[in-house]
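Task 17 of the worksheet. Students: predict the tertiary structure of the chain below and write it out as structure tokens. Keep your answer in the requested format; marks are given for formatting as well as content.
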Amino acid sequence: MINVLVADDELPAVEELAFLLGRDDRIGAIYRASSGAEALRALEAEDVDAVFLDIHMPALSGLDIARAISRSARPPAVVFVTADEDCALEAFELAAVDYLLKPVRAERLARSIGRISELLKDGARAPEMITVDLGGTTKMIRREDVTYVQAQGDYARLHTADASYLIRVPLADLEQQWADAGFLRIHRSYLVALSHVSRMLLAAARPSVTVAGAELPISRRHLPAVREKLGATRIRPQA
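Model answer:
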């Protein structure tokens, strides 16, 4: 069970979020705070696994609280809850697990709880976040949500299940930076996340991989490396 703290200077917002959290079977105790100071006192007194922080609170903001608890030996997971996206970049620089926009939707909250649950298992690390620009708005996406990357000149287009995002980073740079995260170059134009690959056709006349429903070509140049990677992941009987 995940014990949580909800901190917001508007009491109706606290109660609404607490109500939604209480409907999730993964949530245990729910503590409430209506100010930054009260939130810090609750964190000192109670065993809290995750805190849902309103950013715009008087005196001590949600960002102030996140900075304070980041210095503790066992900081709780932090989810920011706000009515705007202006502080998204600073929020994720503070290693926030998620960033929820008001009014909070139940299905979106469930995804946040899932992320917290994953994070708490075996002391897992916080997910790697990527900053992207979308229509003049700065947005954060999780690298593990990227299914494949497509080269577009000096840019790269990141594909996820929901959308695609253009970043000003060459595909060759991402190939080096993301190799340890399970990304494999299959073509001069494509880098794929092996965790999202559902099918590989290596012996066909036109080798390809299927990633999130998209069939992508494997070039002759990259085919040996793909074969080697696939061979390394095969399960073999013990000698």
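Marker's comment: The first helix runs from residue 11 to 22. The mean pLDDT is 87.
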